[in-house]
Amino acid sequence: MPSNTIVCVSLAVAVSAALGANCLAQEVASVDLTKLTVRRDLRRPASTQERSGARGATIEDHHCPMGPTFPGVPVNPDSTNNNAVGALRTTLVSSDRTHYQVGDEPMFEVTVENVGSTPLRIPFSPHLADLQPKDPAQKFAYSELQLVLWIAGTEGGSNTGGGVTLYGADNHADSMLTLNLGEWVRIIGKGKFAFHPAHEAGDGPVHPDAINRVYAQVILYRSETLLTATATATVRQELCLRETYGRAFPIALTGAAQ
């Protein structure tokens, strides 16, 4: 075969591979939680006794090693987890403005992309109540994806900026979806910028005025909930991820809402 033919064939293969990769990289689903009435209230078993108010308890198992604290910070080699269920990149695409006060509720848009080598099943319904069995006394299992906003300053330190939670269960097909390599989902929601004066980083407290960026993180859980007439018990087990972050979004945060 002439050499120029070999070059053409090689080029064609390279172009085809590149196009194939681009075809794999795509948005597969989106949810705008600011436009939905979320169904989270769970039914309780009937009781023959007068109720004085419902009690709740949650047990969380956080056994996963810590990854990078902020976007752009290298991963600690000791934080890698060979038992991770997959790898996700969480990117804060936009926020509704750049100047906030503590107590404000920012509207944000985030993408969550599978950057691992294997498909990953994630929950993608805002309606926890839809997953409850017909018998409210029956314990039920489900998955949770918590999307959390974190605010941080140049000196380090972070506080929660609120977030949203999505739910799913394999016996409710419309509540789960599979992310293949290069596929992502888009989530639009509202957070709430809080600040805890007792929170410390480095040598002292981080003042709200020192906060200059916000970024997003997701956490996956496998959960079980049991309800009685007067109590709720939930057990959450964190599913470890190899997680990376997209860019941090620049903001200015002042100390008190008007």
Question: What does this molecule look like?
Answer:
This protein has 258 residues and is mainly beta. The protein has one domain. Helices cover 9% and strands 46% of the residues. It has one helix at 3-24, and strands at 26-32, 55-61, 86-95, 99-101, 107-114, 120-123, 140-153, 156-168, 176-179, 183-190, 200-201, 204-205, 211-227, 231-239, 241-245, 249-250, 252-254. Strands 2, 7, 8, 13, 14 and 16 form a six-stranded mixed sheet that branches. The protein is globular.
Uncertain parts: 3-23, 198-205
> Structural class of the helices, strands and pairings?
mainly beta
Count of separate DSSP helical elements: 1
Mean pLDDT: 80
What would you report as the Rg, rounded to the nearest angstrom?
Answer: 22 Å
The oligomeric status of these chains comes to single chain
Identify the overall geometry.
globular
